[in-house]
Model the fold of this input.
Amino acid sequence: MVQKKALLIDISQCIGCNACQEACKTENHLPPGEEKALSPTAYTALEAHGERYVRRLCQHCDTPTCVSVCPVAAFTKQPEGPVTYDVAKCIGCRYCMQACPFQVPRYEWASTQPRVQKCIFCASRLKRGLPTACAEACPTGATKFGDRESLLQEAMERIFANPAGLVRKIYGRDEVGGTSVFYLSPVPFEELGFNTRLGSAPMPLLTMSALSKVPNVVAVGGVMLAGIWWITHRRGEVARHEGRHPDGGEW
Amino acid sequence: MVKAPRITLQRATAHITLWRGIACIFILAGLVAAIARFKLGLGATTHLSDQFPWGLWIGFDFLGIGLAASGFTIVAAVHIFHAKEYEPIVRPAILTAFIGYLLVVLVLVIDLGRPLNFWHPLVMWNPHSVMFEITWCVILYTTVLSLEFAPIVAEKFRLHAHVAWLHTFSLPFMILGVILSTLHQSSFGSLYLIVPTRLHPFWYSPLLPVLFFISCLASGLSMVIVETLVLSRGRHAILHPRLLAHLGKFIAVILALYLVVRFQDMVARHAFHGMKLLSYHSLAFGAELLIGFVIPLAMLLFERVRSSRRGLYTASLMVLAGFAANRMNTAITGLESWPSQTYFPSILEILITLGIAAIGFAAFSVLANVLPIFEPKPIVHQEEA
Done:
């Protein structure tokens, strides 16, 4: 059974050195240069919130919204955890960008052959048994790579060991049905720009509730419309018949 | 059979009127803008961004689909509910729908980041995606529309005997057309089910598909009234005013139904909680509801309004305007509650949209004159008892 991988990001330990972004750019052949926000050339970026640095990237959700909404299935959730993108399938409809609850995917607007750009969890490195480039590069261990279950365990242990220094919540564990990127924070997550209203139900369930009714609409609608045609058509027949036989026919 | 008039220079230039001139300018400008869009990419020519990946063009698509709803509503009324008195408006409605859907698809392809891959949904499937369902429904429905349209073209070239076989399937096609329309009209609303934390509560609702469907019936029938009134200028009246008045009643009922469903849902979800009366969203919401639903409903309750050409025209235009507002509010305004930037289309986006709209009007104008849209059908198509 494939072990699902995850990242644990402890905001209290991040010193803002940007080694994660540099390593990410090198690994993914993205143009160098420090960027302060996610972009088509930055799969991860440090957002400054006062003295804190919040590292954002794709959450690699367990029930990814992007996978669900893409009309041509260009996104795939790999068994080890990464949500990867197949540009060969992409038609550029940008529904993934509209739908992502974390507003992660970025677009190469400047290109005439634009791609959706987001962290791919170093899927090829994972296949070779290596950690993600960012985790490997982090000097303080603020970003840690590991098995999902053991990282969650460790996160909880850290919270219990340091109740004054860490908020009692692991962001990313339950959001939208669970993700692969967990955050620990010294201050409430709302103060650092996290969306804490997301709830624990995966977003695709919302669409499923509508789409699952399609066969109903077809079947019920078909019978209803055919029935109405038949009943109202009969009136026309009766009218024509009575037109020809004003005394009324049998019965 | 009307003989086509001989083309002379005098006849040709006589047709150059102000509206046609404007349409030509818009079409040319749109063409140039479209070339720029493809040569320079979306970033250089639009105001779309990572925070606003969808803008005017997707909004236009929403609008166009709703206006083209005139097609399936009238086909259902005449051929399924057997309201034969509306038969004369069926062909113009089908023509509108056909042109409308082709234009919507065209705008969609222009909006795509990788338009050459537009055919991918045909072979790459994701049944979990609302966009996938919409794509297929639109493709199938446009096919049904072209099959409903084919006999009209066939008659023009006196080939109607060759397509007579189509009439055997015409009822199943029409039922299929109504079902497909129901599905994708509501699915356009379902597209936004996936963004509950981003779309403003005034517009977000689990009932979005239901609300989109009900409102498309109102806009479809209003479009029928507007078309009929406009096309009846300079011709004998296509439909008796009593029939239009009757449509007005239907629209009133649909509007009332919509308001009840929407308000009930909003109250249940506490959508009005903490609402500021003069905020950006409140004003947009108020304008949409008043202009598109409340005022036309109030107007159409009166026999005097329904029997007056001007009254019907005004009420119908208001419904269409409110419908446009609703779709734009759902697609753009309602998402502008973001802390980050807001969105307004670029000049090129606007020019392309106007150009496409002008093509639609021009196409309708030309085809309505060239094809037997208003002439009675030939005897070959006597309906079987």
Remarks:
- The longest helix of chain A spans residues 214-244.
- The beta strands of chain A are 5-10, 45-49, 52-56, 75-77, 83-85, 106-107, 116-117, 143-147, 181-184.
- The longest strand of chain A covers residues 5-10.
